[in-house]
């Protein structure tokens, strides 16, 4: 038994890359949790012909469930409900009670925009109350209702904005039509191993050996990928293959134990957050421009240990706000180990912190020299109680890559220093 | 005449949302520039059956060109070349010279990892030299070569890492096979209008009127979307419909002139960058944790006007680093207009800046009160020569939404203040 699903993301703004889709990935994770196999994600613009072709493709591939996102708005390019109704062979009918509920919502929104013609807006929103006959209505979180159309496949139609889609997906899963469509789902286990400082090729070589050495290896579905300089190995398997996975993990530990930093799915961000509990951390940043502080404070509750940050982008700011000796900058350059160490010292003092991370580098595209080409980044982690680590790396990629990769390197250095036995 | 294309993004890590795809959007923009119609983007995992189904779907939809990304690596889950070869009815053949070139590249990479068994890695990389018979080889930028397989449709196979894919796409476009596949391309014009402070529904109402009032309206392909609080209207049309677009623009200006901030495709980031030329800007951030400074410094050359930033996440940091009077925090709370104004003052002084932006808010999920619920954010823009704007808003969404939306609001306030006639 199994249950397979497809996701259709609609919207010319997504197809043409003006907006990055967040719904496909989010729904993919929810399907994985449910034990539903995601086979395909397809993206089309606001053209009913292309959307209809994708629905037919997924149905022909035999998926049990199709989830669409987007195209439920009030404008003329929002055509998903009408296209799905036609695909499912159902008439569109006006739901007058739903229309009244939408009118209420719109009236509340319009109160904030006194200069806008509310009648015209209400008329534009009327089409959102047209529903395929026999479909289950998902109450709007914004102004757009969703629908669940039972059938083979069952189709769930959700709005594009993630904060509307997410609660409405939960309502959709509770409907009998969706429960029936995913009745064949299987519980899988999924384990993640994360490594830092290893080329993907080295892991590939290990997996080739594992294929020969480990009986039942083919029952593991393994995917590897590199992101932000980390190599990630994700393995999915049915619970009765747990012993096979254990053997694989033993082999990977033998070969790459020094590079593994996570076997339980935790990210380096989560590990650093745990290590920082009870401490006071500050950052001093140049080329990353605040990205490290922003990344540390992404985590709810980080106010418990993050004091703050100084972004000293200009050289005179390094002196004025972080007390870096200008002679140091003159002698070694702003991207140098002595300067980054002085920045960390300044951050410790300025915030009365006990943990500081400093970053200074050449993010590009300009500013590179033969000695310090674009991608050269200096790091310093300093603890009030003593240990200091200073490192210089040459990171690949463009300006955005170098900036983002630098925050990952900094977190790994911080993890390394904070997890040393004292 | 027209030329249509489809993009196939492969990789379980993308399908399951562990990695966000950057190649689909990037290729979509390149196709638009070329005048090639992008009809579909499809995403599948590392399963040859699903990939083959997507290739057949796109061919059946009549696209002239298919571009695949990903699945060219050394690991066993990298199967794109073999699957495309089978789809195109071509044998896989070993290219010995290509194999030697890949071995050279791998040897250079491996020199950085002395503990890794280089022979095993070379063996793992050998499969990357297997090429569909008669295909054009795209030289590797990383270790993986791409291929162009001529036919109907022509298939371009590119690697997953963006910094490898991008130069290799340019090489692919230059091949006779791709030039022939896109021979029917049409030049389109595309214009973008961006608005801030307008609900999408209001624009929808205007477009409904435009449909009735403007002759030839149907020759405009209009898409609207909301992102980061901005409403964006993108219109695509053939050059001979320029007069129709001009009429639409006149109507939109009449109705929403006060909210339009861009008619030439520029973003608020670019406009603020231009307005800041010759100035010295500093930010003082609490809930955004450095995101505004990071956003200002995303732009190459921003070191010309960005001094830096203080992220004062803890209340004592607001006092210690930005000289905010603790009595002010005690009286009004850290999220208040007096405190955010004091933070801006502190940033001006600390960095000897002439322009400061301060942000303090409740990003959530905790920390909300009945008076100041999650999403309450205070902003201050202060110029050394006088004008100060202070504003408090209630922003929708989760922690990440509130933080990101806050940076957009701050940029619009900055634009507003800096573009006032002095």
From TrEMBL, chains A, B:
Record protein name field: CinA-like protein
Entries under Gene3D superfamilies matching the protein: CinA-like (3.90.950.20), MoaB/Mog-like domain (3.40.980.10)
Similarity comment text for this entry: Belongs to the CinA family.
SUPFAM superfamilies: CinA-like (SSF142433), Molybdenum cofactor biosynthesis proteins (SSF53218)
SMART domains: MoCF_biosynth
PANTHER family: NICOTINAMIDE-NUCLEOTIDE AMIDOHYDROLASE PNCC, NMN AMIDOHYDROLASE-LIKE PROTEIN YFAY
Organism field: Mycolicibacterium hassiacum (strain DSM 44199 / CIP 105218 / JCM 12690 / 3849)
